[in-house]
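Office hours follow-up: a student asked to see two folded examples consecutively, so here they are.
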Amino acid sequence: MAVQLRRAEDGSVRVSFPYDYERVRKIRSIPGYRWVEATKEWQLPGDEQTVDKLAELFAEDDVVFESGADWFIRCLMGDI
């Protein structure tokens, strides 16, 4: 199953995926992570460093951008 990324209204990055120990370990390596029980997703800071780290950690995974994909791409290109 894919890793789903979206940018929340509060500017944070939200990540969800079916439970996988390795993926959870990767998320927990990112400073500022938080599990949101109500929505069953990980909340991460919405900054360029986080986007870069996500791109590095999940380079081998299928990634689906639920919303705001243009923002992620601009971060990766250094435009933000």
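And the second, which I mentioned at the end of office hours:
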Amino acid sequence: MSKQQRSKSRSSKRRRKCVQHRLKFGNKHGGRRKGSGRKSKDGVKRVSHHGRADFDGEQPVHINTKIAPGLPTLRSRRAYSVIRAALAIAKDRNGMRITHF
């Protein structure tokens, strides 16, 4: 092989572009598909995905709230006094009653 042919064959190898091929997994990894999910033992669906029923103002309601991450705890004396004052004002405005805090 001549010097010119060797340099030509090397340069043609360098110019070759790599192509990435897709791997075909079918429908086996994740996503919504027929038959997915945990099966019940007797075939009966246990969880209703309908909205909650409306409630009247006479029924007690249990409420839990979370604060934004990074804020100080609400159990400090300063935070407790501010929250208690805010709830007292809201009670008079909205006609609600707090039985436990």
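Two things to take away from it. Helices lie at 3-15, 77-94. Residues 77-94 form the longest helix (18 residues).
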